[in-house]
Amino acid sequence: MSARESRGVAFWGRTFSFMVLAFYTAMSLLSLYLLVVGSLSRIGTTLELSDLHWYPKDWAWENFATFLEITGGAAPIWFRNSFLVAFLPTVFNLFFSAMAGYALAKLDFPGRQFIFWTIIAVMAIPAFVTLIPMYQMMFRFGWFDTYFALLVPRMAGLGGIFLFKQFTQTLPGDLMEAARMDGASEATIFLRIVLPLATPVLAVMFLLDFVAGWSDYFWPYLVTNSRGLLTLQVGLISLIGVDQGFILPHDMGAILAGALIASLPVIVLFVSLQKYFVRGLTLGAVKG
């Protein structure tokens, strides 16, 4: 194949890749765009495909005020609960995962490989398999319908351990050895050397875990009954009435306005951390 033919193949390959990515991006943003348009439109008590338009035909800026009104003042409480459920467990999970990942990557102790492969095996178990045991634990601990049931189960996870271990393996071992020769303890090495260098991967772990906690619907719905403990996602569904077996006569434009409010923190967080995202995901891809 000549150089000219090679350049032609490369050009069409890049063009095809760009078209695929552009199509995927458009499809990903379409739902968000329709959400914004719907939140600014007067729709009615039912939502059908014909109610969705490319621009608001009947502007209704009051949808946001209506959303706060139909929640009976509970929207700020739901927002606070969603933030607590997403933020506090994420902080604990990051710290525990970082410590465990560092130990598995850089400390030599009996059973290290066995523990690591056990973690990999457990990660393959679907999360729904553990729901019934976790639900029973909440009852036996007396945590049902409390903040403990919302927060504690997510304070430790396995995915972060794997990700941080893969990153820590890319750090030169000589760096830790030099610190040990200077009299630094393992805690000092971890806190003052490893964690500052791990900012990109920690940002990725924080983003993924925060989004998972913020978007979680099923577990908060399962372990709470009190209206004051509902998260924003569960509260939105309760306004529709699906969890009660019938549809409540609320304007769907106001419900979409609430859904838009619920999506804003995740969008802002992603935009803030996007410079770390790709770098953090690829740091542990090559061991060296």
Describe the structure.
- The protein is globular, with a radius of gyration of 24 Å.
- With 288 residues, the protein is mostly helical.
- The protein folds into 2 domains: 3-39; 73-282, MetI-like (MetI-like fold).
- The protein has 13 helices and no strands.
- The protein has helices at 3-39, 63-70, 75-106, 112-123, 131-140, 147-151, 159-168, 173-181, 186-197, 199-215, 218-223, 232-240, 252-282.
- Helices cover 69% and strands 0% of the residues.
Number of individual domains: 2
Largest sheet: none
Number of helices: 13
* Architecture (CATH level 2) name of the largest domain: Orthogonal Bundle
Order of helices and strands: HHHHHHHHHHHHH
CATH class of the largest domain: Mainly Alpha
Give the name of the CATH superfamily of the largest domain.
MetI-like
Average predicted confidence as pLDDT: 83
Low-confidence stretches: 284-288
Which bin fits the share of residues in helices? 55-70%
Structural class: mainly alpha
Count all strands and give the number.
0
Share of residues in strands = under 5%
Termini gap: 35 Å
The fold-level CATH name of the largest domain is: MetI-like fold
Net shape: globular
Q: Radius of gyration from the CA trace?
A: 24 Å
